[in-house]
Amino acid sequence: TWKWVVGPMFLYLCERLVRFWRSQQKVVITKVVIHPFKTIELQMMKKGFKMEVGQYIFVKCPAVSRLEWHPFTLTSAPEEDYFSIHVRIVGDWTEGLFNACGCDKQEFQEAWKLPKIAVDGPFGTASEDVFSYETVMLVGAGIGVTPFASVLKSVWYKYCHDATNLKLKKIYFYWLCRDTHAFEWFADLLQSLEAQMQERNNAEFLSYNIYLTGWDESQATHFVMHHEEEKDVITGLKQKTLYGRPNWENEFKTIAGQHPGSRIGVFLCGPEGLADTLNKQSISNSEADPRGVHFIFNKENF
Predict the structure, then answer these.
(1) Which H or E run includes 93?
(2) Alpha-carbon distances, residue 149 vs 16, 77, 138, 215 (angstroms)
(3) Secondary-structure class of domain 25-123 per CATH
(4) In the chain, how long is the greatest CA-to-CA distance?
(5) What pLDDT was estimated at residue 163?
(6) Where the protein is mainly located, per its record (predicted)?
(7) What are the residue ranges spanned by the domains of the chain?
């Protein structure tokens, strides 16, 4: 037995030593941004840190807990000179981080007063393959939109510098949210992308649909009253917010009809139930003919 145990145990110990060494490297918090509804953005720098789109890191704040590590998806793009995470304040640890960063105080916080942060990673996810397709469907549910913030930022940077070398030609983006709280910090990014594509006369590059799933009658009435306005009253975007849940069968059939003979990447960050639905639709809408349209499903669950 020991012959079978020693090899894997040695590899495991090596991996733990590498992770310990990485976690001891100095991390500098360069900026703390407070977004609405108790969401904070931490912008950090670390020597030798290299990332790809959609990856995640483990974060430890000794001022809050010396033992707890928490995973967060990177919301920055590889082209930026820092890496960032968005943290929604929903529990004891995140509340402690919120207070340790001085976000509960009104006065400006000096950089030297910010807490020490340990970072382990980055670690890969399915979202890294998004630039391997000409057409992609990105589906984020709630806070599952964070890996696609990194993807869309990277697309924006690539498009600004040299769009001719970009294999990705069309993005269909879907965001499903129960309430409006999660819209706040992400709407600015979509507005920038929307304006950039219009300036370059390629507004069709990004098609996005935002679905508010936890709506009531009063919200629906308000939506109807303001539907004719130029910009959406919730997000400030030209694309109007939709109420309810998408009809995935219709969405897949429409996209398949617009891109015949293509390999379309379907990327999800969301719950298991939604993953099952999209996986079934990807299979049922893919053609048996190798020259036909094929949906390739990729997921990460939370």
Answers:
(1) helix 92-100
(2) 30, 8, 11, 24
(3) mainly beta
(4) 72
(5) 60
(6) membrane
(7) 25-123, 128-299
